[in-house]
């Protein structure tokens, strides 16, 4: 159990200190062609302390949350900071003071009991696919629920409790017909416990029907023609471009690590149609998929407008990077589990919608592609990226043509954004995505569709 | 209470709650280390954890659960919850646990970190980096010591314990000069001791040099079908189509693996031999016990191009009727070839030396595409220039059938040992 009063331990603080108790309950269920291959629940509960001294940090974590472990974590973290600062040739100033108190409980009051309903839900959908689509040879459902409860206090006086569950379902399908095969995965989910969200079988079946139709076309699809092409990127690809290829280059710890954005503040970073924001918890009046209200350093989480009308305006900060850049901490310091120290992480990163209609965007292309669903993706700090594309269509003379097989797109993200000349009028989030910067953590991506020039791989 | 008391007590709780078959594993871990920011050691971290894994089968229904809080009543509650969760599972006679095996204790004899030496090696690395003035080290560059103690018991009477320890070095860096950056370099290396300077681990010295060279890149012009030499650093990006997908449970259970009928058949060039060697003294990060609760064995997977076995779990084996292996994969070793690395490069008329690959997950038939990074254009047997914005596409099964050569030299990453391999028939496209 997380303790309500952590301040009783503050007498053991020595200098700037963060103390965090955290419980992560992760449920994992996998159904493969009707076989339940994973039915697992894992609880990670523990305490961590981080201490700052003259520019050097000590961090320690222990399982369990009893008093002796809390004191031991504080002792070890303090010892680590003292050890490093005693070896130091240079000392650094104090961190900026941030004090935030509060509570955000987005749970349904339970500590995750989704298994029975979810297994039943999966089995019903699985039976539907097996009976209706004989060419679907592999059906795999992967459900996860991450139920995260934490309590943080800092020597600055922050005292914050949160309980925020996030769930997702990924459906992997493989289609085979007359020697042609194609596969795809679709991801859904959101913030909160999963109860009730997967109750609508018919709604999920409609998504399955649509996906299988695309798969059948993809199995007879053609290889994309490689080269620099005019493309419409759906919100799924726009979102991953915003996160992987732009967002990471503007995380201040990575700017310090030599990212391309280090020389770009107040310079052109996209066309004037592009505004890119890392939302803390609320966008366009609605709660974001991964709401962060107070970060794991006790800083109130604020939206960061990274690119505004094509100009790079700001980086995302933790306390240490804000000290380096003389900026204000933005509430981007996040830790995945009790055993992780906070790092600069994105929360909900999206390009804002424009005024164009998707149909008009497609109609404006003579020879190019409509890229609809991304697979995995990576990017470098130069903003050079690669994203897999698992669903897409040719565009010929303004009309959608044949489906394309798996391909990938690459390029320099800032150049791609500079080439954007149309932006659609609706923002869509892609739920359930995780960011893998050292510690896996939920991070949402979203955006409108954009029309741009991008390098398509192929044969 | 000892670790053995905890697992025995937990096993008894599971049986009391109604488990007909059960397995319990207690894993205690500690990770201690240092991290760098802006060419200075700025963080000392010490992370202790434990995990109690419970697995139960009751009336052919299965569930697993894990927890790390063993405070009063926690284990009993976990056993109860595990059995409750089995009720949500469909019945399946495939679920099972390992049979009785004679008790054993395993140890790689690397027990605790030498923190003073760890600090000195890291400082020495920072000094070595000063020879590369354009180098930028990222904040996640860290050197840790990792230790793991494991105790496993099951209701068939199997009792194993193991201890494994190793040092792990994550180096993340790029180079910057005149406002221009190289791409990022990421390497993870593991070793049983700190006998050697960190720059001597893996390919690190070469990568540090290449990082500076790669500030000024060019795109390959046009599109052609050529050869690629895949460096040890990124060979797993191509091997993983076999080792993590096509030879594994999911694709064999669903029947979508293109190798499903290929045991005993040629699936790679005749010189290609692949094995999983968790027990090899060369593998710093090996293992002794499989997650199924069996004593691990080294496993020949492909010998001289011929597929010898799949890498199936107990569940996968029983579900497909294919042979079980006493190995959980990982620790892959590719046998050395008979060609010098330099001769491999020299034999290529036009192609690439690929040191990093960023690609989409290959499709079920092995088609892939992606962008090469930290890589060099080869023409007439010579490395010409570092490339940018250059993509490759091909089919992985065909690549392995079209191996031109395998280097004598290999690189040990501590959890894999790889040579350089030259493949033909890959589509290369630049701007």
Overview of this protein structure:
With 459 residues, chain A is α+β, with helices and mostly antiparallel strands. In chain A, 21% of the residues lie in helices and 41% in strands. Chain A has eight helices and 26 strands. Chain A has helices spanning 67-87, 115-132, 201-219, 235-247, 252-256, 319-325, 358-363, 413-418; strands spanning 16-32, 35-53, 56-63, 101-105, 136-154, 159-177, 180-191, 227-233, 276-279, 282-283, 286-287, 304-308, 311-312, 333-334, 343-344, 348-351, 367-379, 384-396, 399-403, 407-412, 422-423, 428-430, 434-435, 441-442, 444-447, 450-456. In chain A, strands 1, 2, 3, 4, 5, 6 and 7 form a seven-stranded mixed β-sheet that branches. Chain A has a six-stranded mixed β-sheet with strand order 13-12-9-16-25-22. The longest helix of chain A has 21 residues, at 67-87. Chain A is globular. Chain A starts with 15 loop residues before the first strand and ends with a strand. Chain B has helices at residues 3-16, 74-86, 115-129, 204-213, 236-246, 249-253, 314-320, 341-346, 396-401; strands at residues 21-37, 40-58, 61-67, 104-107, 135-137, 142-154, 159-177, 180-181, 185-191, 223-230, 274-276, 299-303, 306-307, 332-334, 350-354, 356-359, 367-373, 376-379, 382-386, 390-395, 403-412, 416-429. The longest helix of chain B has 15 residues, at 115-129. Chain B has 431 residues and is α+β, with helices and mostly antiparallel strands. Chain B contains nine helices and 22 strands. In chain B, the strands form two sheets. In chain B, strands 10, 11, 12, 13, 14, 15, 16, 17, 18, 19, 20, 21 and 22 form a 13-stranded mixed β-sheet that branches. In chain B, 20% of the residues lie in helices and 39% in strands. The interface between A and B is large, with 88 and 79 residues.
